[in-house]
Sequence to fold (383 residues):
Amino acid sequence: MLLPVKSTAMLSAAIHTLIFRRKPPRYHQCFCSLATIDYPPLHHQPQWSGLHNWRRSPLNRDRHWGPNGPILHNNEIEHASSSPDFTSCSSLAEMAAVVLSTPDPLAKAKLSHAAYSKWRREGFPIGVSDAPSKPARPAKPQLVSPKDIPSPKSSGLPLNAYMLHNLAHVELNAIDLAWDTVVRFSPYIELLGEGFFADFAHVADDESRHFTWCSQRLAELGFSYGDMPAHGVLWAECEKSSDNVAARLACIPLVQEARGLDAGPRLVNKLTGFGDQRTSSIVARIADEEVAHVAVGVYWFVSICQKLGRSPGSAFADILKEYNVEIRGPFNHSAREVAGIPREWYDPSPAANNENKLSEVYERLACIISMEQENSSLGKPTK
Fold:
């Protein structure tokens, strides 16, 4: 077992030693199947109860939002597994690089689904590829500073389309964030394991479906993605963590995607109040599915911390400090708990600290009671 790492600098150095400051292991072209992927158990860490079923779930082709929810649209033209975009690809990482290099948002979403489908169906190896410095982007939306994003009143869009456009931008970035994680860390499959890449490819497929729903609904409202400016903050956070897999997990799933758990219910309520139940239902479904993505981040972050012999909570705090990442409320504590994020990781409030202290007290009491029961049983005369 690796020795505990006690400082930010030591943590960063240990992660680089574990993941980066050694030559990438020689890659073996072995084919991959979900049925054979092993997910090591985590010790003393709550996990989302649905994680196993999500990993083993069949391919989700319900990429059209019907009258009552997501459906498989008979008229939708899907990229076939023999898509010419993938003719030169022999691995998941190579297909991921193609997706990242595709500028058109809807084409990117379709290719994302095609890549994940092809990998699951044909059992391609994870492989190795080079990640582009930035994902390809369309001419619109114009990317501006967050302070230059127009308000709902000045955007020219009604409130429901305004909120939906913002969500579509998040989902498009999420597609690229997940595939970038697959490609960028692909040389380290023997250290991270096939399950790491299978999980993030699955996340990318989910996000592509979410973007497709948002794009469809925007079109129904008479708008399209790109009709108002957007910001580049999400990708900037991704770039921060391009050289550190633990930081990538902390900054993206455990911070950025966890914010979606916080904002989802508020957005649903606003859309319902606006009178747009259809958009509200889409957002509610997306928010519900984001729990899996946060849970994936928790699992792999804790897994890496255990390899380092490090407490995940303190490692998370150190990474946020080192990378200057701020966590802001209000928090959806119940959704975060379901996803497996302990409250003391992100909430410095007295209530959270008290809960943590109470938890420690209960653990000590349980230990004392157990010891007393054991001593009592030892003192009883044998019959």
